[in-house]
Amino acid sequence: MTAAFSCPVFLPSTFSYNGNRYHGRIKIKINATSSTKVKTLNEIAGAGKGSSSLATSTEIGHLSQEQIRQRIPTKKQLVDPYRQGLIIERGVGYRQTVVVRSYEVGPYKTATLESLLNLFQETALNHVWMSGLLSNGFGATHGMVRNNLIWVVSRMQVQVDHYPIWGEVLEIDTWVGASGKNGMRRDWLIRSQATGITYARATSTWVMMNEKTRRLSKMPEEVRDEISPWFIDKRAISEDVPEKIVKLDDNARYVNSDLKPKRSDLDMNHHVNNVKYVRWMLETIPDKFLGSHQLSGIVLEYRRECGSSDRVQSLCQPDEDETLTNGVEQSLHKNMILTPGIMEGNGYLGPLDVKSYGYTHLLQIKGDSKNEEIVRGRTRWRKKLSTLPNSS
Amino acid sequence: MTAAFSCPVFLPSTFSYNGNRYHGRIKIKINATSSTKVKTLNEIAGAGKGSSSLATSTEIGHLSQEQIRQRIPTKKQLVDPYRQGLIIERGVGYRQTVVVRSYEVGPYKTATLESLLNLFQETALNHVWMSGLLSNGFGATHGMVRNNLIWVVSRMQVQVDHYPIWGEVLEIDTWVGASGKNGMRRDWLIRSQATGITYARATSTWVMMNEKTRRLSKMPEEVRDEISPWFIDKRAISEDVPEKIVKLDDNARYVNSDLKPKRSDLDMNHHVNNVKYVRWMLETIPDKFLGSHQLSGIVLEYRRECGSSDRVQSLCQPDEDETLTNGVEQSLHKNMILTPGIMEGNGYLGPLDVKSYGYTHLLQIKGDSKNEEIVRGRTRWRKKLSTLPNSS
Fold first, then answer.
1. Mind telling me how many Å the CA of A15 is from chain B's nearest CA?
2. A-contacting residues of B 5-24, CB under 8 Å?
3. What's the pLDDT tens digit per position in B301-320?
């Protein structure tokens, strides 16, 4: 129901809702109060005194100006013509049509993984936007704001079968479901609008955190009543037993130290953006491998957030045993739900045709006494066709 | 008529079309030939042999698959429903409605300069897309492809009066005009869709380069016949005498050395993206200044392109004499064209209300014997309102 990708939380596999203090360093309120709204508008107006048209037209009032400019719906909308969004799935799923933009593609004119992650965040927020439940925060509902709750993501998994190309029209479906008693799952499917072929799937897990105490929170009845009518029992990626990601240590093959978040890496919550994490992870893999392989899947397990003053270390380790990797990859493929594309024979022809390579990742903050994990990751890769022998 | 921002050219104020060899290092053809198309599609199909639905449905043929996925128009279109684009201005201007996405805003929920630059590139390319003139390259027309010509940008200027906020609906107008005998100007205006207030203006200058000889080229009659019907004699920014940007040397106040382009910084031409240049420039300014000021304008003069193996140095120097800076800034404001927003009193109240601060920038490649300029820049800044005394 949200997309605060930038605000991950420490989430052990079993955790207590009492006393599990979150180590975050959020510097501004995520759910804007009246005073932060005014401050934001001052920022927006921007120019020196009297030089800004927005600053001088005071008769409208600051708060309503932001409302006029954003126009967040207060009631459920079925169609959003500006975002090309549509409520589907008996009124609770969301579909948005997007065109792959020129700056969202990389050297091969194909959309980058970062662009896909950005589109996941965008469509998730637009889904909440359409629901009429969006408060002024980053995906929080009215009930969450009343309870000082924000969303934090604990896990994200993406599988990319085909990368969209520049100018291609895509349909992105997203929906939410229950995840245990107090969590929420959000899934995505990206399809070609022209052919209907599924290009990518993703799933994520979310929990709630009290913004003031920084502790994980149970989902209040009030919030459950808001969001549970939107739950759909359908999965983009069916995985019986989530693969456990081992924790790397200083013996990891590749280490990139002293990574420093820059001003341009911070999002509207003043946090290092989730996409930046992925960039740090992938940049630690040797260039030669990146040049000859294409990412087919990624799993991220978030442990804690990263502030703007932290120094980050990125570690990664290639799998030694390719056979093992392929076994895991194949079992993942077998467990995928049957989408129309697969059923029509457009999908995977068999386990023997899949050759994949795996990397394990860790981002951590180097501390004086001990290191603190930010996120663990697993990436899977396939060889680019043009580097295979006998490729056309 | 295009937006190859990533492919700047060395362009002295007077230059010879003969013998002025361009020092670029383009690694792939920008205007795809049949063979590069196939290679690109192999990249797109991506997965190992037989594991990709796109790779296996060979009956359609590779070339037509890319065409099906991109659907570049071969005739002029008046409306593009997917991009929300529209041909305006008696059939030759282009207007696109866009919504500011969640990942396009920074810490204050306002769109970043990088996002605006990206939207300029995107709308320029979509303008060519709609014209029916787009070949498969990065904004090149059919006549340009026949003559092995590509676009290179020599100058770019942006003025931002107000930064759009997350979720705001914008109208971006873009059009082209003549620039001398052999050049082209492309301008942009960004307006609030809700209020009609102009938020930002931009102008850019383009010339043609022979892709094979790397030399600047006159505009062939064939190409002039294609694009001149699209020329409009209107300017987003009226500037009588373009400010000359001085070249910084090693005495510059702030220097950031050993900047290295990363894989994720390369665009579909395998060049360092224009936006990355701006990021390198701005990151060299001290954090304290960036935290209390907002960029109001930028001018970029491109000298040569930057390849993926270059080591880049970013220099910048604040203006010593604020009075002088303000004088220049004010003359710029006085020369701006009268847009509806300004005429209705929504604009600048007078020179005395504008306090701006200037920085001069230089990006260069550190060579063994000498340095090579990539781009010179000038940025202008205003204090953020919230940091002023007595601000609300």
1. 31
2. none
3. 999 877 777 889 999 999 98
